């Protein structure tokens, strides 16, 4: 056993046993952040804070929620919303948080794409980030089942039906996932378990991994500059703060992060108090009814782009297109063949690729909300889905011929 001296303070006592000071140095006081980054680099911490809000509000909701097909709807819409003190507040925080977290995830992802933050050395940051995207998608979907309203039931029906594999008609698999022929008690219980236990654990694990992957390559910066961290850190520690290209995470960068978070939370709570309805589908205020299909079934806004990729094609093709759309962003670091780490504006054809992809995803999102009955909108949806795939096919070619900066 190591030799232990008498500690002079509580902090020292812990440090002797847990190396707290080394941990603080490695993770905070000497974790170096480039100076040339903008507010978009605060989105990661904004995401972590929003996840924290979701966990806390979720714990309060869990105290009154009933995972039972006969009681779930009332436990949310009656008990929590009207009987429990401030139950409405926790529900609005949870609902708004679930929607806004996707907006921030998309901003965070497209920031990474714009600045090339997924390139050599940073592939694992990107892959763990994509893991988080998929895990959050599953978390949002499973949570959507819990109020057991009409949209919970029918979205659950439609999405689990996807696992029948089109013409393969693998209905055994669908029934296995549901635990029944249709969404019913077994279905609700397992999605409840996924939502409150398994998926949050996976998300926490992935966040730890995501933070770990940032440690060695460091975050990118808005010029794509390859910083000599040892030299920059030496200058900073010598007191030459002006010439050093970096600042420590704690306390300097964190103060900026907290400022951005402050602005974000003002907007967040504005939505919670005054515009929570945008995060709640009116159809889901009708209790689930397996005998009454809603006229128009659509997912929440953050799934609309991939839903629209599924819709315009025939059954099998749609399913394949949908499956590819779900995972293709994982491949970004390997399909972008250019060695340039730079903002898209400085990168030849990639500049157009970036904006075309962003606009295409937005168009797909808007089209995904519209009923499939209008021929014009259906055609725009089809063209946007084709553009989506054309862009991914073009990516290795346009980045291969990109001039080295
Ligand atoms: C939802 C949970 C997430 C959390 C809590 C999170 C957290 C963070 C944090 C704190 C940073 C460092 C600061 C910053 O650049 O903002 C970061 C960087 C990064 N994240 Fe995430 N992230 C999440 C999801 C994602 C997703 C979905 C992606 C994309 C697939 C992603 C990709 C990246 C990339 C590429 C970087 C490096 C940025 C750079 O080097 O400049 N993250 N993340």
Would you write up a description of this structure?
- The protein contains 16 helices and two strands.
- Helix 3 packs across helix 11.
- It has helices at 10-18, 20-29, 43-62, 72-83, 87-115, 123-145, 150-161, 171-178, 185-215, 229-237, 249-274, 304-310, 315-327, 332-335, 348-369, 375-400, and strands at residues 32-34, 246-248.
- It has a two-stranded antiparallel sheet with strand order 1-2.
- The relative contact order is 0.12.
- It starts with 9 loop residues before the first helix and ends in a 5-residue tail after the last helix.
- The radius of gyration is 24 Å and the shape is globular.
- The mean pLDDT is 95.
- By secondary structure, it is mainly alpha-helical.
- The protein folds into three domains: 1-30, no CATH class; 36-297, Up-down Bundle (Cytochrome Bc1 Complex, Chain C), CATH 1.20.810.10; 307-405.
- The structure holds protoporphyrin IX containing FE.
- Residues 41, 43-45, 47-48, 51, 105, 108-109, 112, 115, 117-118, 122, 125-126, 129-130, 132-133, 136, 207, 210, 214, 219-220 line the site of protoporphyrin IX containing FE (HEM).
């Amino acid at each position: 056993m190591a030799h232990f001296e008498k500690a002079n303070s509580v902090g020292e006592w812990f440090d002797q046993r847990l190396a707290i000071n080394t941990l603080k140095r490695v993770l905070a006081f000497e974790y170096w952040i480039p100076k040339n980054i903008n507010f978009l680099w605060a989105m990661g911490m904004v995401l972590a804070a929003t996840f924290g809000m979701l966990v806390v509000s979720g714990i309060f909701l869990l105290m009154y929620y009933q995972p039972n097909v006969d009681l779930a709807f009332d436990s949310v819409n009656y008990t929590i919303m009207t009987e429990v003190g401030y139950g409405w507040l926790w529900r609005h925080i949870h609902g708004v948080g679930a929607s806004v977290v996707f907006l921030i995830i998309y901003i965070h992802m497209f920031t990474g794409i714009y600045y090339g933050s997924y390139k050599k050395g940073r592939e694992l940051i990107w892959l763990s980030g994509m893991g988080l995207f998929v895990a959050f998608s599953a978390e949002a979907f499973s949570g959507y089942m819990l109020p057991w309203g009409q949209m919970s039931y029918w979205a659950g029906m439609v999405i689990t039906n996807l696992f029948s594999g089109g013409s393969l008609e693998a209905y055994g698999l669908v029934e296995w996932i549901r635990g029944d022929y249709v969404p019913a008690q077994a279905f609700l219980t397992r999605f409840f378990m996924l939502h409150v236990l398994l998926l949050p654990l996976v998300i926490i694990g992935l966040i730890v991994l995501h933070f770990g992957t940032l440690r060695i390559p460091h975050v990118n910066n808005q010029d794509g500059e390859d910083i000599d961290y040892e030299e920059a850190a030496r200058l900073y520690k010598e007191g030459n703060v002006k010439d050093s290209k970096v600042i420590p995470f704690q306390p300097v960068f964190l103060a900026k992060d907290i400022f951005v978070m402050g602005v974000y939370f003002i907007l967040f709570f504005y939505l919670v108090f005054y515009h929570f309805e945008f995060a709640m589908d009116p159809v889901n205020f009708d209790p689930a009814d397996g005998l009454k299909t809603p006229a128009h079934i659509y997912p929440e806004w953050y799934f609309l782009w991939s839903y629209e990729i599924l819709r315009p094609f025939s059954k099998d093709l749609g399913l394949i297109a949908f499956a590819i759309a779900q995972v293709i962003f994982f491949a970004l670091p390997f399909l972008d063949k250019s060695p340039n780490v730079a903002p898209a504006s400085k990168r030849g054809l990639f500049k157009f690729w970036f904006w075309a992809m962003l606009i295409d995803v937005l168009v797909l999102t808007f089209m995904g909300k519209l009923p499939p009955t209008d021929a014009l909108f259906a055609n725009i949806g089809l063209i946007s889905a084709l553009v989506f795939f054309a862009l991914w096919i073009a990516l290795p070619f346009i980045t291969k011929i990109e001039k080295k900066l």
